[in-house]
Each structure stands twice: as structure tokens, then as C-alpha cells.
Amino acid sequence: MLATPRRAKPRPPEVAAQRDLVVEDAATGFCGAVIGLEKSYSGDLVRLEDRHGQSRVFLMLPGAFLIDGKPVTLVRPRTRGPQAPSRTASGSRALPQQRARQARASRLFVEGVHDATLIERVWGADLRAEGVVVESLDGLDNLETALSEFGPAPHRRVGVLVDHLVAGSKEERLTAEVGDNVLVCGHPYIDVWQAVKPSSVRIAAWPDVPRGEDWKTGICARLRWGTPQDGWRRVLAGVNDFRDLEVPLLRSVEELIDFVTLAPDDD
């Protein structure tokens, strides 16, 4: 007897994320109206505002939102989005709409995609205006190779953002001898998630995770956030601008941006 073939699960319908469309984020239950669209290293973002005036951003993943209780996939509408704000997410005055500057020779290196995405989330407009490219190392162990391949020089500076840069740490040892034209700045937090203020992700404090246990997995287990992928969505959704980040991260990123933008142009 032949088995009846299973039908493929239907894909959620695509819905244009038009301004004022009311949707619910399936993972967090946050319900609000669309007030804007943004871009990040992880993909397109939609900004929702609830009835209390609180706004949050969410990744526009397939089936990640609900309309009338049914999953949908939000997509960018073909029409133009809302006008740009007067200030960027980093607090800088927004420049008139213009093409991104040609990329500088200098670079910002960060440890992973989450670091790069948060920097893009808060400093993206500033970086595009200055022509600064952010590159993920996929782990600090790759820093030496990345610097060797890049070849820092007076007009090709490198700024390196490091998680958990504290005395006696592995991170301190890996960045002890980086050579000329390289600046290393860091923050004391175990992971860049922890540089997001607890109040911004609606928790009292970041839980302690014992050494030897994967930090993101442990955090998600203790907060009942599901998988690290689910947890990352919550963290990113909690970051609207610089006010959602801890001062040590803000200070380090600003210092690194100054360092690479003060380098002589290669043109």
C-alpha cells in the first residue's frame, strides 16, 4: 500500500509593511503599528509602536508576525517609506538624504555578527556618512590573520571592538600586540548582548551563567527565551538607539569611529 504523500506546509502570506499596519510579533507578543522600516546586517527591520507610544524594532523574518492571529511575512512596500528622523540612532544630527560615501580604506573589526548588527543599528547612519565599513572576524582568534591580510598603515587604520576586555582575560592576551595603526577598545561584558541595558529587554538584570556553560544558551534558558536565535531577536528588538546601550560600549565605539575617520583619506 502506497503511503499518502504529505502536503508541504503552506508558506505564510506576504504582507506589505505599510505605515500604520497593526501587527503582533509572534515571539514576544508585542503588538503595534508600523511606523518605519530600517536595515541591518541581519536583514530588514520593522519598527512598531504600541498604544502606549513605546516603539521597538523587529527582524522581518518569514512568518514572524501575526495579523488577526494568523502568521504573515512582512515585506518592504514598493512605496517610499517615512521621512528620515532629524537625529540618528547614535544621537548625531542626521544629514540631508545623500548617497553613502565611498568606503574608506580604514576598517572596524568586531568579533561577530551580533556585534556588527548592533553597531549598524545604532551607528549605521554615521558609518555610511563617513564611509566606514564594519567587518566581522567570526571570533577574536581570527584577529591576527585578519590584520596580517589587511595590512594596517597610516591611511589604513583598523579599530577593533572586543567583548569582555578585562585584565587577565583571553581577550587581553589576544590583543596585547596588534602593531601600529591599530586601536583596540572593548567593554567588560561577557557578550555584546550584556551591553544592552536590562530595562530595554524588559528584565531586571542579566542572569549569571557559570563558566564552562555556553553563555547565550544559559541566558536563554534562565530567561525562558527559547533558543539563542529567539533570544537574539528579543535583544535586537530592545535596541532603538544609543540610550538602550551601556556606557562602556558607547564610549568604545565612539572612540574607534574617531580613530578610523581621523586617518588621512586614501584618495
From TrEMBL:
<dbReference type="Pfam" id="PF22845">
    <property type="entry name" value="DUF3097_N"/>
</dbReference>
<feature type="region of interest" description="Disordered">
    <location>
        <begin position="76"/>
        <end position="97"/>
    </location>
</feature>
<feature type="domain" description="DUF3097">
    <location>
        <begin position="106"/>
        <end position="261"/>
    </location>
</feature>
<dbReference type="InterPro" id="IPR021447">
    <property type="entry name" value="DUF3097_C"/>
</dbReference>
<dbReference type="Pfam" id="PF11296">
    <property type="entry name" value="DUF3097_C"/>
</dbReference>
<dbReference type="InterPro" id="IPR053883">
    <property type="entry name" value="DUF3097_N"/>
</dbReference>
<feature type="domain" description="DUF3097">
    <location>
        <begin position="14"/>
        <end position="77"/>
    </location>
</feature>
<protein>
    <recommendedName>
        <fullName>DUF3097 domain-containing protein</fullName>
    </recommendedName>
</protein>
